[in-house]
Structures are given as C-alpha cells and as structure tokens.
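To the wet lab folks,

You asked to see what we're planning to order before we commit. Fair enough. Below is the target structure as tokens, and below that is the sequence we designed to fit it. If anything looks off to you, flag it before the synthesis order goes out.
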C-alpha cells in the first residue's frame, strides 16, 4: 500500500518525527528564530533607552515604570490572544502579523515626544511582541523531528537573548553617536527582512494543516518538499484521530494537564518577574553605580550573552541529566549568584557575574519554553504556551514597579539582587512540582 492510496491515513506527526532533519526544516527553523531575535531586541529596547529619554525629556526615571508595565500588559494580551489565534488560523500567519505589528509601532516610537505617546506606542508594540513567542515556539517544535525538538526549541528561544546582545552592543554605539531614536529605527527596519522571508519561504505548520481537511492539498505539497520522495498525492488522507480540532481553552485544565498547568504558570510568573527586573532596570542600576552609557550597553550585552552560552550548554546537559534537574539547577545558581552579587563593588567582577546571572535567569526561561512544548499536545500547544507566558507576564508587569522600588530603596543594587534570588528560588520550586518532568531522565 502506498502513502497516496485511498485507504491510507497518514499521521503527520509520526511521519515528520521519523524523517531526517532536512536542510529545509533547518532553514525554516532558522528564519523563525530570526523573528525571535527581533522580538528579543525590541523587548529590551526601552530599558536600554530610559536613561537617555529621562535626560532628554527632563523626567524622573520612576515615571517610566507605568510605561514598562503597560508595555508588558500588551505583551500579556498579545501572548494569550496570539497563541489562541495561532491555533485557529495558523501559527505562521499569526507570526507574520505579530512581527509586522511590533515593527511598525517601534518605528513610530522614534518620533515620540513625551511619556504619554511612549506609553501608547509601547502597549501596541507589546501586542505584537506577545503574539510572536507562542507561535514561534510552536513552529520551532513542529519543524523538528521529536529527537531534535529540545535542541530546536532551545536554540530558537536562545535567540531572545541574541536580540538582547544585539541591542546592548548597538546601544553602546548608536545612542552616543546618533541618539536614542536610532535604536528604534533599527528595530523597525530589520524585521521587514524577516517578514519577507517568512512570507516567501516558510510554510504553515504541517501538524496544523493536518487538522484542516480543506487544506490537505497544501499539506501534500509541503510534505513532498520535506520528504526525499513524492510520497503523497491528492488522494492521501491524514490521520487526525489525536487532534481535537476545536480543543477549548479549558483543555489545559483537564485532569491530565491541570497540575502541570498550574506549576508551569507559577514557574513562568516568578521567572519572568526576575528576568524582567533585569531587562528593564539593569541598565538603570548600572548607570546609578557609576557606569557610562557604553559600559551599560556592554553590561546588558554580557547578561544576554551569558544566557545564550548557558542555553547551549544546557542543551548538552539536558540530554544527559534531564530537563528537570538542569532547569532546577539553573534556579539554584540564580539564587546563589544573586546573593553573591549583592556584596560586589568591583565593576569588572560585576560584569563577569552579569554573564553568569544571564545564564541562570534567562537560561531558565529558555528551558521553560521547551518544558511547555513537552507538556501539551499539538492541538493545545499554542494555547498552553501562550497562557503560561501570559500569566508570566503578570510577573513582568510587577517587575516594572518592583525594580524601581528596589533601586529607590537601595541605589547600590543590594536589594535588587536579593529580590532576584527570592523569585528565582520560587521558580525552581515550581519546576520541581511539574509531574511531566518526572517520567524519565530525558524529560
């Protein structure tokens, strides 16, 4: 019996998982990852420019806390709605829409002249930034065979701090030479090339199309490109027995997923609280302890570079010791690192430890995406990832005010890092509660 016969029902997931990781799939993952790079860049752009905006507009830095908070509210809404719409109308489609939205709003921000305008524009950009991540994560998981999913997701999500590294180094060069506006202009122009590549090269998720019989002819063309032979024809039927086409939001609270959903939400909340304290207020903290604009940019880049290197090392470690052990180990490292950080006064030592804290805090966040993708099946994966990240954004919203409060209490940063240690300790405990990670060493 051939794959194209009337009697055949092809399970798309099993077919892709049994294939080699072809150059086409790797290309698709690379281009999706480029969207994540732009997301990571734009996510940190306001934190990198607060000092310059405060000086130019003559306003206190505390007044940017509501701007940061409303931007993250936009992220929360965009993450949930974007993940839900991705499950309904296609992950690729929503990824393109999301990148286009934050690109446009970032470009317009270069013309902002006051806090009110900045607040509105960052909220609108946040909608696009939030919608990018659940759809990018789902595509990263679904364009890789099962044995390569952890690698694909981890490398792809590691592109969040790649965007941060890019932002840190560009801010060190562009802001002193051309002003804060230049960073926003770059953040608007660069995504245009990513959008073009997504439109012309990257197909829709095969697993998503398998759940839409009307789109099977399109699915046949995609699968024939991904396979070494033209195995499929217009007569091929696809097995969707394991795909509930209209799985409701409540599915993530079914008996099978309820416990892990709540534990995952707690991990996202506390981890993003710590990560966004860094993203939003670390540049301000570094400037308060006496570092110049270029040094602040380099410090931000080192933090993000640390998270990239940490994530790459974790890919190797996870394969040997399991997701649960390595993720909780990162949490423990962040707790210890934060406590050590609170006693440092030497600028060189601070810069070095920033890289380690990036590995621990942002590296933890990167692995959370892999954990979320493992917990849920494809029909609710976007909703599961999106809802967890949206709940985590509440922690990020609190970080907007918590970071400002910690720096007002103690400009030396001691309270700042104690706060990070506390929140990362709670995130570690939440990961240890996820039942799906107790199944096997490879989990």
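Sequence we intend to order:
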């Amino acid at each position: 019996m051939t794959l194209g016969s009337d009697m055949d029902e092809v399970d798309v997931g099993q077919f892709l998982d049994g294939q080699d990781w072809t150059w086409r799939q790797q290309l698709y993952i690379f281009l999706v990852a480029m969207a994540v790079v732009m997301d990571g860049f734009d996510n940190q752009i306001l934190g990198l420019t607060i000092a310059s905006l405060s000086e130019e507009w003559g306003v206190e830095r505390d007044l940017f806390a509501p701007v940061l908070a409303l931007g993250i509210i936009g992220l929360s809404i965009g993450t949930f709605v974007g993940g839900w719409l991705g499950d309904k109308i296609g992950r690729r489609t929503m990824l393109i829409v999301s990148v286009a939205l934050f690109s446009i709003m970032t470009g317009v921000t270069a013309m902002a002249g006051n806090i009110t305008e900045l607040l509105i524009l960052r909220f609108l950009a946040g909608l696009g930034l939030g919608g990018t991540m659940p759809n990018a994560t789902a595509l990263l998981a679904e364009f890789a065979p099962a044995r390569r999913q952890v690698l694909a997701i981890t490398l792809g999500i590691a592109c969040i701090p790649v965007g941060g590294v890019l932002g840190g180094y560009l801010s060190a060069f562009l802001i002193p030479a051309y002003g804060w506006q230049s960073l926003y202009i770059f953040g608007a122009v660069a995504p245009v090339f990513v959008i073009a590549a997504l439109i012309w090269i990257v197909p829709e998720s095969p697993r998503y199309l398998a759940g839409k019989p009307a789109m099977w002819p399109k699915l046949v063309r995609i699968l024939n490109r991904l396979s070494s032979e033209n195995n499929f024809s217009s007569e091929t039927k696809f097995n969707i027995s394991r795909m509930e086409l209209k799985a409701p939001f409540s599915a993530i609270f079914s008996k099978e997923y309820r416990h892990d959903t709540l534990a995952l939400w707690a991990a996202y909340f506390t981890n993003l609280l710590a990560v966004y304290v860094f993203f939003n207020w670390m540049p301000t903290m570094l400037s308060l302890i006496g570092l110049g604009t270029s040094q602040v940019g380099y410090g931000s880049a080192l933090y993000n570079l640390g998270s990239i290197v940490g994530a790459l090392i974790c890919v190797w470690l996870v394969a040997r010791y399991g997701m649960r052990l390595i993720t909780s180990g990162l949490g423990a490292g962040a707790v210890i690192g934060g406590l050590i950080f609170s006693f440092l006064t030497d600028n060189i030592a601070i810069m070095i430890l920033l890289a380690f804290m990036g590995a621990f805090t942002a590296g933890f966040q990167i692995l959370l995406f892999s954990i979320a993708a493992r917990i849920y099946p494809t029909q609710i994966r976007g909703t599961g990832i999106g809802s967890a990240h949206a709940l985590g954004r509440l922690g990020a919203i609190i970080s907007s005010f918590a970071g400002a409060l910690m720096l007002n209490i103690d400009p030396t940063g001691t309270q700042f890092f104690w706060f990070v240690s506390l929140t990362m300790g709670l995130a570690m405990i939440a990961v240890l509660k996820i039942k799906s990670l107790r199944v096997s060493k490879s989990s």
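Structural context that might help your review: The chain has one domain: 19-222+254-436. The longest strand covers residues 9-10.

Thanks,
Computational group
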